[in-house]
């Protein structure tokens, strides 16, 4: 026969269980939703505060990400405690899981440590043009695990922070000035003094050239039919490319106006006429 007493006992136990853990589940869900909203609000407030306090642009997204991760971990622990889970056991399980995850994600942890190292030592900042890991571009963002570069042709490059922190980084922007070295090849038939004076006049007429260190014009290569003069000047970093392009164009125009000869390839015939009627080979020389 159906045991009414046992049924009522089971119903009572189930009701008590639902009332107890159901309320805890509802409270945990409410805590989770409110916690996520508070975390987002705090993140925005902290980020706006960093902007107001003029914190380094490179640090802002990194600190925001770290703060969000830490607060979410604390929120998860709080929600689990709300469900009535024994925290001592949970922390032990969390520690074991953390060790296993750490071993599985050694590369990611290395990238995280690299990001901290980059932001501490600051070999580059957001906005700097750098070359590293065989790539070059303007630093767009420094994240927890990678650094984002934007190339001049608008490609996006993601470089892991671990290898980046342990590699050679060339920063083209960190200094205020840069040296421009331009090479001009002319015929050996020209007067070196005249060529040098033409280049010196072009330098003197350009206000972007810095007086110190003083510009230098030297002969860096001498061949049978050509010689190369190198122009070494210092300019502000923002004028580097514009000055280089303008100087090349103005030098060509000045050489043509002053009658400066360019090195012309010469062809010499090797050997005489062959018995099979083939044309002798020609050798080009400059």
Automatic annotation (TrEMBL):
Membrane-spanning parts: 20-42, 62-84, 90-119
Q: What's a single GO MF annotation on this record?
A: mechanosensitive monoatomic ion channel activity
Q: PROSITE patterns under this entry?
A: UPF0003
Q: Where is this region: Disordered?
A: 265-286
For this UniProt entry, which residues form the secretion signal?
Answer: none
**InterPro entries listed in its UniProt record:** LSM_dom_sf (IPR010920), MS_channel_1st (IPR049142), MS_channel_C (IPR049278), MSC_TM_helix (IPR008910), MscS_archaea/bacteria_type (IPR045275), MscS_beta-dom_sf (IPR023408), MscS_channel_2nd (IPR006685), MscS_channel_C_sf (IPR011066)
Biased amino acid composition, Polar residues: 272-286
Which intervals hold domain Mechanosensitive ion channel transmembrane helices 2/3?
69-106
Q: Where is the Mechanosensitive ion channel MscS C-terminal domain?
A: 180-262
Compartments (UniProt record): Cell membrane
Q: How does it sit in the membrane?
A: Multi-pass membrane protein
Q: Which residues form the Mechanosensitive ion channel MscS domain?
A: 108-173
- Which keywords label this protein? Cell membrane, Membrane, Transmembrane, Transmembrane helix
| CC terms in the record's Gene Ontology section | plasma membrane
Check the record and name the PANTHER family matching this protein.
SMALL-CONDUCTANCE MECHANOSENSITIVE CHANNEL
Provide the family line. Belongs to the MscS (TC 1.A.23) family.
What is this protein's record name?
Answer: Small conductance mechanosensitive channel
